[in-house]
Amino acid sequence: MNYDNLIRLNKFVYENTDINQAAFLICNYVVKEFPVRGCAMYLYNRLKDNFEVISLAGHANFPSEGDCNDPEYRNFICYRNSTKCGFLALDCDVDVSSEIDYVSSLIVLIFNRKFVSDLLEKSSAPVDYLQDEFDFYSDLRNLAKESSGMPAGAFRARHGVGLKTVFHWNDWSGEVYQNSDWDIEDIRDTSVCPFFKECLDKNEVVTASADDVSHLFFHRRMQKGVKSAVFSPVNVGSETIGVLSFAIPRDYVFSSLEKLGFLSLANSIGVSLTNFSRSATAALDLQDDVRISQILTAVEIAQAARHSARADLDTLKTYILTAGRILKGDLDNKTRMKVSGILSECDASIGSCFKSLDDIKSAIRPPARKLKRVNVSSLFESAKMQVRGRIVKNNVDVRWIDRDAEIECYPDHLKQVFLNLLLNSVDAFAGSRRQGNRNIRARLHNYQENALSVAVRFEDDAGGIDVAGLRTSANDHVSPVEDLVFAKDITTKGVEGSGWGLYVSRKIVADHGGHMSLIEYRGKTVFDILLKKVISI
Q1: One GO molecular function term (predicted)?
Q2: Are residues 297 and 275 in the same domain?
Q3: By C-alpha distance, which of 65, 66, 78, 45 is closest to 249?
């Protein structure tokens, strides 16, 4: 073995930040210095719980996923403490173990450096602070998973004496772990779990080894697959706002470097949460958005109410003319009854005119932001009444079907969501040549009595969304249709549309702690609205 080359290799590996290049030089060194046909370096992947090749040299064919016990190759396992972090696989006929040990020990350096590199690269991915809460936490969860390289984890925010789960993931796979389920429940009192308590009290990273996971906390929540776990405090300034925890289905000793990395990731998430909160405050206030949307919608409702009022007045005019002709002749008892009936119709028609005018008044009334408990169907029916003139004119059958549910909400705001959806659907029917089956339906979807939320499905069979018109309006032929549907200032109605209805609707639903999504847009249009039953907690 050429020790000068080994010294140069050692110096290069320690100084080079390019992990793949350093790994290749190690493999290439082994092929040149030892009687082997090929060499491959495998590193342990915590997320997939396997060993993956990161570099190879020589003429041998090595699999992308390696087994350190594969008898086809001579494998030199590298341990960091008691944890297998990787191995070198050699295709050779002679025993070179006494000479290769030092070279294989460089795997620890590569493994640690790869963890830091992946953490820095993936945790620096941009996060959209202007999206709704559901999508923001989904992005944050993916960032935590990919950056940490851990197959399971959860972020819990401080909530009184306990912790409330904000997001979680579990990507364990394979038969061995198919019944595993990393804990995703809220922690009512941190004293029941010493790991959470110690993490918060000491404001430091706490690990749980194979012996520690025998604690009642893990058994009570059926943590069958957990062999090792780590708990990191999430800090924002001097305040600890929660705990970011990870689990892995094998015995694993976390290094001080990894614990420092997890703490850095946790604090990065804390900063993201703070930025999200600030962005929400700095963005257009929801009240203003709702108000603008109501003003724009009021114009459409006023148009419908105007048509309805004009039709009623035309009917009233006809009745009055008829009554005038009758009054010119002699009035017998039968005629008097007829005149009485006509005048009754006039009275009803006048009442309808006043109702139409009330609709206009109701449409432009500032929305009240007051929490109330109401039935979801009542919000739908109230919105339906506001546009009944346009519904009748376009011969559309609008119904709430099946069961109902009571929720806590801001009724004036949430009604606006149904109002925007109804107006879009009725307008779609107005431009459709279909005569029959002009239906709009709303109902609870997959309802569960004891669930914390309800899903409302809204659908119409007006032919779906004009995707071509939507993309033309947005000048965007790449983005997903759902992104464009909920984007601001994009409409398929031309000059008659504001492009704000669904954008504001989704923000209103997010303000209620829920999420609004497009389920179908081909042939028919289907939206799902997920709403919490209680939002004041």
Answers
A1: protein histidine kinase activity
A2: no
A3: 45
Question: Do residues 129 and 151 touch, judged by C-beta distance below 8 A?
Answer: no
Q: Are residues 68 and 146 in the same domain?
A: no
Is residue 128 in a domain?
no
Measured between alpha carbons, how far is 502 from 379 in angstroms, rounded to an integer?
17
Element (H, E) at 241: strand 239-248
Listed residue (34, 44, 36, 95) closest to 67, CA to CA: 44
Number of domains in the chain: 3
* Shared-domain flag, residues 461 and 478: yes
User: Domain containing 491 — which CATH number?
Assistant: 3.30.565.10
What does the alpha-carbon distance between residue 359 and residue 386 come to, in Å, rounded to a whole number? Answer: 6
DSSP-derived pairing of the beta strands 152-159 and 50-58: unpaired
What pLDDT sits at residue 341?
73
Can you tell me whether residue 61 is helix, strand or coil? coil
pLDDT at 216 (0 to 100): 63
Of 532, 528, 533, nearest in space to 406 by CA: 533
The percentage of residues in the chain with a pLDDT greater than 70, rounded to a whole number, is: 76
Residue with tokens 């064919």: 61
Q: What does pTM read for this prediction?
A: 0.50
Which amino acid is residue 57, in one-letter code?
A
Alpha helices (H) in 328-364, listed in sequence order: 333-363
Question: What's the one-letter identity of residue 351?
Answer: G
Asked whether the beta carbons of 375 and 330 are under 8 A apart, the reply is: no
The label of the residue with tokens 């796979």 reads: 173
Say if residues 537 and 460 touch (Cβ distance below 8 Å): no
pLDDT, averaged across the chain: 80
**Overall average pLDDT of the 105-116 stretch:** 83
Same domain, 116 and 150: no
Structural domain harbouring 32: 3-122
Instruction: Answer yes or no: are the C-beta atoms of 52 and 23 closer than 8 Å.
Output: no
Please indicate, yes or no, if residue 537 is contained in any of the structural domains: no
User: Range with the lowest mean pLDDT among 27-36, 174-183, 281-290, 414-423?
Assistant: 174-183
Give the CA distances from residue 366 to residues 298, 394, 454, 506, in Å, rounded to whole numbers and listed in that order: 11, 29, 27, 19
Q: What is the 3-state secondary structure (H, E, C) of 467-509?
A: HHHHHHHHCCCCCCHHHHHCCCCCCCCHHHCCCCHHHHHHHHH
Residues in the chain, overall count: 537
CATH number for the domain that contains residue 26: 3.30.450.40
Sheet holding 83-91, edge to edge: 65-66, 50-58, 38-45, 83-91, 74-80
Rg of the Cα trace of the chain? 33
| Separation between Cα atoms, residue 140 and residue 272, nearest integer Å | 8
Instruction: Extract the tokens encoding 337.
Output: 């009854």
Q: What percent of the chain has pLDDT over 90?
A: 19
